[in-house]
Amino acid sequence: EEEEEEEEGSESSSPPVSYQMKPPPEGCCTTDGFCQAGKDLRLISISNEHIEVPSGFLLVGIKSPNLPDHLLVCAVDKRFLPDDNGRNALLGFSGNCVGCGKKGFCYFTEFSNHINLKLTTQPKKQKHLKYYLVRNAQGALTKGSVICWKG
């Protein structure tokens, strides 16, 4: 019993560690470009698929450090995105996975974990939500205008 108490005590007195994502639950997909349910999120792969976007949400492209040539697709509540002048975005995050359909991510850290966005620092959504996604004349989802983040 004394050994257990010592171990517990050493855990609580250890210095805080730098940001690390929690490992995904056992059995989850951990492949770059795929969500933990194993669904492909790369724009190039799902550009011609019909994606359900709830009212008030927009499709945006996320840049992944591990996949520099690809954008990952996600649905974000437009209230948390800036206007054309880079202003008036609410603080926080609300997003959905377009791969498996999981809804209600309230924290970007939780969402980035779900989409296997492997980051070495505390994620800041402004840095990774890069482009609005739009449908072209042929109906394919393509990279639109840059999301204008200020400050």
From TrEMBL:
Top-level taxon in the UniProt lineage: Eukaryota
Sequence ranges of Acidic residues compositional bias: 1-10
Protein name: GREB1 protein
InterPro entries: GREB1, GREB1_N
Organism: Rynchops niger (Black skimmer)
Positions of the UniProt region annotated as Disordered: 1-24
Annotated GREB1 N-terminal domain residues: 2-151
